[in-house]
Amino acid sequence: MISFKSVTDWLNTQLEVPPMSDELRWVLNHWSEVHSAMQPVLSRSMLVAINSKIRKISTGKRRGYQKALSVITVYLSEYLQWSIPEKEKVKLQDANNKWFEEVTAQSANSECLVNSHQKLIEDAVKQPIKVNAAMLSITLLLETAPISLPAIFYLLTHPAVLEEVGGIATVCYPVSLDDEGEQRQYARYKLSALSYRLLKEYFRAGGPLKNIKALRLNIREYLGSAPFYLENVSDSQLLKMITCYWQKRLPNFFVKDFINPSNQFALHPARYLIAANCSDNSRLTQNKTLFHTHTTLDINPSGKQKWPHKKLLKEYKKLGKKAVLKLLKSEPSVVWPQDNILPQLYYFYVAELIEFGGVKKDTLRVSTIETYTNGDEYLNLHPLSFDDAISEEALNNWAEGFYKNAQSESVRLHLFYFLRFMAEQELTDALDIDAFQPVNLPKTVDANLVSAKELNEIMHLLSESEAENKFQQLFCLVAVILSFHGCLRRGEILRLRMQDVEISEPKGTLFRLTITNTAEGRTKNGKSRVAHIELPIEQAKLLRLLLKIKEEAHYLDPLIGFSGELISSRERQYILPITRAIKSVCGPSARFHHLRHGGAFVLASQVFVLFTKNVSSVNCVYLSALLQEPFVKNRFSYWLEGRGIEQVNSVVALDVIADMIGHSLFETTRKSYLHGHEWIGGYFTPQVQQYSKLLLRYILGLNVGSNDISRQVNILISNDIENLQSISHSSTNLLPRRVHEMAVNKASKLSWLATCDTNLVDPNWTAFWIEKLARTSDCSLDLLIQNSLNTKAINSSVTWEELSKIKQLLYRNKLSTQYKKTTYKLIKQLLCKLDIKECSFEMEMTKRAAVRYEKIFKLPEFAVFNRHFTLFKNRGTLSDKQELFIAHEIFIANEKLMVEPIHLGKTKLVVRLELSGISEQWLINIYRQLFL
């Protein structure tokens, strides 16, 4: 149901004067068709139904109802993102064009406003300033963002909106509330140095604003006085003046984007803090659970499904929160049922509700949790197997049927909360919950990403942690690189084949990726696309190494994985470790898909830099390295085709971004992948601005007549002297970022002013991987990898196909990676006894020998063989004791004995080894090279 409150809350963030409340209520009360909609679609029949009711009104109220209908249509289209008829889209576009014409008509007033405000500020800083709400509001509107007055009022009355993170000052405030009042979506804008200083002073003084009416009155009086003399300025007129000014600062697309942030959500404040304060790699140590394989159980033989969350709720009711949390911490590691993981996931869901509470309360009653989790009977009808849970396609198909078959709206809502929980778990983080969101709520944007710096940390973590074998580690490293720079979904990176990766030149850093439908699955929209990526030198070396190792692989083989390896196995082996590394570095809400978000952010930044050549606002060395002019031009060389940027049509630049990501419209990319506004403006503002020394004194917190300003200016220009040529007695040209950082960090933290090292040296990932491989002594597959890279190691070097077959053989069971000296001794003794030609050996028929050989043939390297026993029995031996001994002491499982009588010689037992699909002589010969 579309509520009156949700519409009016949204209207308060808009720029135009809303219709009367009574008119809105009337339309909503008489429009039953829109309330009963099951899909986010405003159909022509719905509009015909409400228009027929409006036309029956014979008085002037009809106009008010029609305006209310127009507002609700915009609300459904822009805020709830419903599909609307083409005719209505044209109407909205016409209204939008008309609004911008009205903006242009305010050009003279806008120029007067800007010039007068600048003059007023210059005069004000000549003496200690007493900041008032009107002055601060106009400064924020001109220097931070052209947002609505209700948003400005929120900023001025909530000091917590001010963020000072990583040397950058921003304002962050909630712009979307869910049905329970959860502040789940935010807008974030970067403050100018002046805005930051004024806002700090205002909060320190304790602004006296009581309500938004008082703010409107203050602004009206402020603009009506000298030097403005703008009488009776309405909210709408003021914001059109402000927008007219911003049209000169930003491309047209981003002007409207900045005005209404309700669909361009920023990172959650807690996630932003993690991203901005992401520490250096020295804190990273190997993670022993990163490459851990999930333990699973076979199908429950009883067929009766148990739901452990019920027992947990009983304990919570009986023992209380503190005791239950203690019990939860002492529980052993999880074992996932192979046939249905939902009971275990539901248990974790209840445990999280107990520990963290709900949206409004830290502690929930048992009855409340039971209300949230009363869907176990419905879940019983829709089991989710472990293999389906780790498969992106199977998981989302399950969720679609599971959610859409729910009968009531309340059940759907509770199931949606559970799906939202599932989307943050490492096992099920491929779940896309966009399609399951209630139609009467704004779509939740997954506002998160992996930054360029965090990518580096994730790679360090993957490199330092011990994998089952070094190829698992190499596949993970290449997968994380391509998923980030190529903006790939997890299914796309898994389905990427050898033929889909092309390199521009033998030792190049430019690659062409083809993302298309394969036998293993389809792209999300069913269409193919091409991604051109330029990689940092050391990351490119790692990809070239993998391509070199697999150069003999079949062109349809997966790039990430061995020949013949199932996609479900590749999900477990390579995607899950990456997911764990992402969560370890970026926090529990981060998931694999956020590599794609991070790559989209870099891609958009590179396109902006291609045209503006402005990187002065970037304060991250890792991002800055990806934005250098040669790097960016090389990536887009396919588009530039040798032309200068001035010869390229800039209008299609945003389409280039969308095409490479796989979206039909850039608006989709902006809403879903490019989070926040704080990073955009810096690419389009002048790299150097002129500051008067009076203004600088105020910004830096110095006294009006302080002589320390000269020293501060020298610090500011010391790193940028080549860019700053104009320095006078009264003013100086400076980089705005330097001024901003010094204002935020003060003189005691001038480390932020160090020059950005754009020649960042990446760790030598390839050398590091090869060095770790060279230290391998215990893992047989790693030793084979060494030999495959060194053709002189064995007479016939290991081909990729053979290596893949060995991997499948050795890794049916979990591989032991470390053997004791006694075990090595036993292996050596066996290999010395083996007849290579016949692949057989004679085995002593003693209990000691039985124990010794059982131990050997349970090792993964030897468990792959099928053993065939032949007892060559002297005819003079009448007893069957030997056959019984072999059956009871030597056989491991379902093995058979063949008895052949001999006339001469002693009775002996010969064991012949066989393999399917690969030469047993070849494998034994390799083992002799490894172990002898």
Summarize the structure.
This protein is of the alpha+beta class. It has 44 helices and 14 strands.
Topology of helices and strands:
Blueprint lengths: L3 H8 L9 H9 L2 H4 L8 H12 L5 H19 L6 H19 L2 H18 L8 H11 L5 H9 L4 E4 L2 E10 L5 E8 L2 H13 L6 H13 L10 H12 L5 H8 L9 H8 L19 E2 L10 H12 L1 H9 L6 E2 L4 H15 L9 H7 L3 H5 L5 H4 L2 H13 L4 H14 L29 H13 L5 H16 L4 H6 L5 E3 L6 E6 L13 E6 L2 H13 L17 H20 L7 H19 L8 H6 L2 H7 L1 H4 L12 H9 L4 H7 L16 E4 H7 L9 H10 L12 E4 L1 H10 L19 H10 L5 H10 L10 H11 L10 H13 L6 E4 L3 H11 L2 H4 L2 E9 L6 H10 L6 E6 L5 E7 L5 H12 L1
Parallel strand pairs: 4-5, 12-13
Antiparallel strand pairs: 1-2, 2-3, 6-7, 7-8, 9-10, 11-14, 12-14
Lateral arrangement of strands in the main beta sheet: 11-14-12-13
- What share of the residues does DSSP label as strand, in percent? 5-15%
Total number of helical segments?
44
* First and last CA, distance: 75 Å
Shape, principal axes of CA atoms: elongated
Structural classification: alpha+beta
Cα-atom Rg, whole angstroms?
Answer: 34 Å
| Count of the separate structural domains | 6
Largest β-sheet summary: 4 strands, mixed
Provide mean pLDDT, rounded: 85
Number of strands: 14
As residue ranges, the low-confidence spans are 279-283, 722-727, 747-759, 791-796, 813-817
Instruction: Report the helical percentage.
Output: 40-55%
